[in-house]
Specification:
With 155 residues, the protein is mainly α. It is 79% helix and 0% strand. Helix 1 packs antiparallel against helix 2, helix 1 runs parallel beside helix 3 and helix 2 packs parallel to helix 4.
């Protein structure tokens, strides 16, 4: 899932070159908010989902994004960046809408939300991989970031 991509991002962000508020710290903050949102959505899928595969996907979201967020939070600390402590307002709003659903209706909307969310994430990671500031200045780091983008569609 996003774990591999965020691991690469976290490794890149630990460089002292990335101190201060720049594309790297902005991207990292968004990634942290996204992880918080995915963790909460994962828990919600386990509670409100009807199908077992939806519940299992929710469990995977919770596990993967908890691990990814720990790496991202560590990277933020090493960059002297104050990380967010919750999802964004939009992510909270999406959660509130989804929390009112259950059963088959939840499963359907959850699947649509996850596809749309991952498509948006892929676009953001691709954009970041093209930015020297956000993806690193070496071709090797850019290549790793791009390689790990391919993980997102399968999640």
């Amino acid at each position: 899932m996003k774990l591999a991509s965020l691991t690469i991002v976290a490794m890149v962000f630990t460089s002292p070159v990335y101190a201060g508020e720049n594309q790297s710290s902005t991207f990292l903050k968004k990634a942290i908010q996204g992880n918080f949102a995915e963790i909460e959505m994962g828990k919600l899928a386990q509670q409100n989902g009807a199908r077992e595969d939806v519940k299992q996907f929710g469990q995977m979201l919770n596990y993967d994004h908890s691990a990814a967020n720990q790496k991202a939070l560590d990277a933020a600390k090493s960059m002297d960046v104050t990380p967010p402590d919750s999802p964004s307002k939009k992510q909270k709003s999406d959660f509130e809408k989804m929390s009112k659903l259950s059963g088959a209706r939840f499963d359907s909307q959850f699947a649509k939300h996850m596809v749309a969310d991952h498509e948006k994430d892929i676009a953001e990671y691709k954009r970041a991989s093209k930015s020297d500031d956000a993806a690193g200045t070496t071709p090797k780091l850019k290549s790793r970031c791009l390689k790990n983008i391919s993980i997102l569609p399968s999640s």
